[in-house]
Amino acid sequence: MKISVVFILFSIVSCSSSKEVSPNLSDNIESVYYQKWMAGVQGGGSGINFHVNLNLPLEENSKLEKVQFDVYEVAFEKISETEYIAKINTHQNDLILDENPEKEYGNEASKLNLKPNEANLIFRVNKKVVIKNIQNVKEKSMIAYPSMERQKN
Q: Which PROSITE patterns match (predicted)?
């Protein structure tokens, strides 16, 4: 009797804290892709724009909050009812590399165990965190912004 009560309590607790994906979120994702960019001047920066396009707007009780991609976790900006973008600043154009990785600016070990071209989309649905794993995220061609011409005196 005691074992069955413990099992039932454990089941209730584990169900309430689970992070399952509701079917409407999975079916609603039209496209997911990323596009790297680099400034045309040294120190101008670089980054990755991570895009999510939905078939339909999210329900009122749902929100697309963050993406986990590569070694980054970044919040989304809502562009329209069905379009979201996360702007990841990679600082690659700002770094000076050293033979000793410990001396390089910005080196951090990733706490995310994602494979290449894999991402986690983090939603909040009815105050619960829902994680949707996306594999084989498409990469679009890099945008290399041109350098600016110097002003003549």
A: PROKAR_LIPOPROTEIN
- The 10s digit of each residue's pLDDT in 33-77 is 999 988 766 666 788 999 999 999 999 999 999 999 988 999 999
The count of domains in the chain is 1
Cβ(119)–Cβ(32) below 8 Å:
yes
Q: For the chain, what's the residue count?
A: 153
- Tell me, what's the pLDDT at 41? 63
Would you say residue 123 lies in a domain? yes
DSSP-assigned letter for residue 106 = T
119's tokens = 């991402």
Spatial separation of the C-alpha atoms in residues 117 and 52, rounded to whole Å: 14
How far is it, in rounded angstroms, from Cα 122 to Cα 136? 17
Strand order in the sheet with 138-144: 77-78, 83-89, 46-54, 29-38, 138-144
Q: What is the residue range of 77's domain?
A: 19-94+112-143
What's 125's domain CATH number? Answer: 2.60.40
Beta bridge partners of 31: 53
